[in-house]
């Protein structure tokens, strides 16, 4: 508001002291924003010169009160009002017109603001606007040399602005990390053209932002920044690089490189050493920090480890030996695990194609510092193991693959109630099979091997070939005993997992490598 009043006062003085001779100006318009921003757009004559002067007010920026010359640039139906500001091409106002031409929006670009400001036509102020007076102010600023100064490139001023912006980022970094980091810019590595074309502060703030975010994730990262990033130097080069120095870090940025913060974060994690030393990197220490261990107090432990694929990976064991809990489908979190022995009827039976009644889970509440294992509809309370003890346990324990060797592949049944269960190797790449046959509760493994396995199905046979099981994907499956053929009904696997694991007898006493094995 002070800027608007001051500009109005200057215009009033000019009006009083001028003869108001005809000025080369057309009818002007004023556009206003929601927070008092104003921009007066006054075209210069002749119209085909495509020139205009713009007066910005009420933005609390260094642009307020300055009447700068602009070129009017058309691109299709859109229009930009472009000037020179501190040696840079600067589009002060942008008019965006929709494809049908029914929507016109004006955007004011204000120095120091990340986003442009939407402004709309102000009829009252437009009627009160005196284009000749604004032109007179423009001429005054021009004769005083002010416009030339504002439009000229000022390297020292640019450097000062970057240093100020960088100081703000350093302050945020130090607040987050408890550090006393100092940031410097190697100005000799940066050309005038780079300063004009790019936001130097954005490039140089990248490693600072990366370190700040790491501190937000990890207590160890705070210690590492305090010890190893006492000084961060930013320079421009041909490719991204980070160099460790006696005083801290040197960050080499490049205007051609993408994903710069990702690069910086990866470097810091993989190259900065943890405070424990012995060659341990920050990434490993951060990984250990995120590990959680829970116990039921009966010698059973669940390890919850960070995992890129499904947020967490579970391991289950006795504190000295752990086995990997099989990963669930990607559509649910790693806290879940397939547990058909404990079916939960109250769960959603069609969640993204999954019957959630088949899945149990580890329930971890970081805020309440609680842990539990839900097996079906029963929740077993576990308690959190102290972080230091958990880290020691994980470091000393052995971790092994999931113990399962086979999983159900096909289930068939004849009219007498005899079941035929075909299992496939547990790992996706395992092409081994086994066949069990018998009544519910007493299926027996058969000495059969697969002689055919293709897109149409599988054929299993005894060594002599007198017994054969045909699993067909298109026609009815069958059991052939010598010359006698029995047609079999396919029983859907997913719908009958509780039956397979609890009633057929094949998995009686088997350990599936889940936290429910001992429940």
Automatic annotation (TrEMBL):
Keyword field: Signal
Record's protein name: Lipoprotein
Organism per entry: Melittangium boletus DSM 14713
Signal sequence, start to end: 1-21
